[in-house]
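Reading group handout, session on sequence-to-structure problems. Before we discuss, look at one worked example. The prompt was deliberately terse, the way you'd type it at a terminal:

> structure PIG-P domain-containing protein

The input record follows.
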Amino acid sequence: MPSIMQLPDDDPPLPSYRATNGFLALCTTYALFALYLIWALLPSSILTAHPFLAWLPDQAWTTVVPSFLMVTVLATYGSYLGLMLYNTPPMNSLSLLVDQRSEVPPQRPPSSNAQMRTTTSSSYPNHEFQAIEDGPYDAPIGVINRRIFPPRRRTP
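And the output record:
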């Protein structure tokens, strides 16, 4: 026999703190926007006559505040762009190619037969590709450059 004090199982769960904070932020935003519209649209005679609204600044500030906020946002974008360009290394820096998470293949001295060129259409030493095939490594920039830009034959 179920007890009288037992709650039914189909009750919805309580809202999380994020939902509560989000709702409060939404209500506060709407209230501040309504106060801003009242301040901007009511005549100054009504604003000064009412004691609750008498502390608001002059109505000229209704255009200055949004303009200041827009300039602040644009200046923030500009400052982040400048900070990003300042912190970007130059194009000839090795930090663009290798960082602390790079997996560089171990350097192996090429054997005598590994220095021979392959007989296929590739004109690269075998030892370069074998070091990469042994594990999950980043390909060295020299190998990539030789793969993309093959050596040209010089004609006299």
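Points for discussion. First: Residues 61-87 form the longest helix (27 residues). Second: The CA atoms of residues 18 and 51 lie 36 Å apart.
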